[in-house]
Amino acid sequence: MMTNDTWGEARETLQTTIGKNNYQTWIEPLTFVSCENGVAEFGVQTSFQGDWVSRNFGDEILRQFEKLGASVDRLKFSVQANRRPPVAQSSPARENFVTKPARRPAISDEPVLGAPLDKRFTFDRFVVGKPNELAHAASRRVAEGGPVSFNPLFLYGGVGLGKTHLMHAIAWELQTRSPELKVVYLSAEQFMYRFIQALRDKQMMDFKSLFRSVDVLMVDDVQFIAGKDSTQDEFFHTFNALIDQQKQIIISADRAPGEIDGLEERIRSRLQWGLVVDLHPTDYELRLGILQQKVEQYRAQYQELKITDGVLEFLAHRISNNVRVLEGALTRLFALASLVGREITLEMAQESLADILRQSDRKVTMDEIMRKTCDYYNVRMSDLLSPKRSRNIARPRQMAMWLAKLLTQRSYPEIGKRFGNRDHTTVIHAVRKIDELKAQDSQVAEDAELLRRMLEA
Ligand SMILES: Nc1ncnc2c1ncn2[C@@H]1O[C@H](COP(=O)(O)OP(=O)(O)OP(=O)(O)O)[C@@H](O)[C@H]1O
């Protein structure tokens, strides 16, 4: 039997499982209405709130009910007319939002073999800017179908820059254009899981023929299989069989094929056969474009939303991490605005996003730069600080100095001091040297880019 007390208990645990911030923003404002015939009903203030809780925390709430022995199969969120804040007037008087049954995934339209596709990850919701234009163009091209021009398409880039979004967009587009195509999207982890399951159940023939029968295979986060020998082996065979049949393969990873440690050489070189494209970290214009698009989507779907001029620009300036963090910040503001029914001001943004802004402000320290550079080049810290001038020590030292100049506010003399009391002219020389080398030597350019990303992550 599900009662208000059960809800109280579930709420206690939810504070830990979804985090305090999420709890306070989303769960605390819910009011328990009733539970009848396995449907637990909650009152919400706006349709946006109901939709968000349903989509993001619905499964977790159901899991907590199950643990407490309450027989709840579904959740229902109803907008309570008398609790509606002023800005929400344009929404209909009462709306329901029902989560799917607990064991179903939170997103729908599952293709036969792969993982579900997210409905929001389409091309028209992907904002294109300088940092991602190549990846977008290549993905569009693949999504047009027709003769396979580059195989595989390998998309790589840092966390939350849109790799998964692009892959899903390709899948949606292909399925719309050619519904007869068997398009399969899954993460490398899911590939491994299915492989192990097939081995265990002695179903390897089925596994092989299933994967070899697809028309388009997309494997996300392929770095996951690095170091997992038998999975790599099977992946390699699947990959070859599909390429031989001229079937399109799309792969994503958090770094370039050449930089994934623990990946067999033959796989590494196969992955480089086709087109390898990089999603660069977002720039200010792209971030602003993404924020503007999200605001428009919100307005179209939910209600009027008032934002003071300059708030989006402020967010685009201050939050330079991945797009996921940017979206999270904006969603929190939407929630707040819909709950309190006020315009989103700069002050509100600064206050309610203090934690995210602090995180984004995170300064890279000299210590981190030195440690990461030592790890990367496999040299000892004591060598980095020593007078040694052999190239295998001098180059990492110059790189670390270059990174220190780029990522910290330290002056040349200060940097020199930290690197074993060196003169500021040595630092100036190191910075120039790396700038020169970056232009001439692609390996140095890659090292610099990778280290910068690792430090800014
Ligand atoms: N250019 C963009 N336009 C609109 N939304 C974007 C864009 N880039 C990323 N996003 C959004 O940012 C979020 C994170 O993107 P996504 O999951 O595709 O990142 P990812 O590169 O696959 O990250 P990870 O390495 O963590 O898997 C998603 O909600 C996605 O829709």
UniProtKB/TrEMBL annotation:
Region feature Domain I, interacts with DnaA modulators, mapped onto this chain: 1-81
Q: Keyword Lipid biosynthesis on this protein?
A: no
Any one GO molecular-function label of the UniProt entry: lipid binding
Q: Which GO terms describe its biological process?
A: DNA replication initiation; regulation of DNA replication
Question: Region Domain IV, binds dsDNA: what ranges?
Answer: 338-457
- Which cellular compartments is it found in? Cytoplasm
Q: Which CDD domains match?
A: AAA, Bac_DnaA_C
Q: Which domain of life is it from?
A: Bacteria
Per the record, the domain comment is: Domain I is involved in oligomerization and binding regulators, domain II is flexibile and of varying length in different bacteria, domain III forms the AAA+ region, while domain IV binds dsDNA.
> What family, per the record?
Belongs to the DnaA family.
Assembly information from the UniProt record: Oligomerizes as a right-handed, spiral filament on DNA at oriC.
Q: What is this protein called?
A: Chromosomal replication initiator protein DnaA
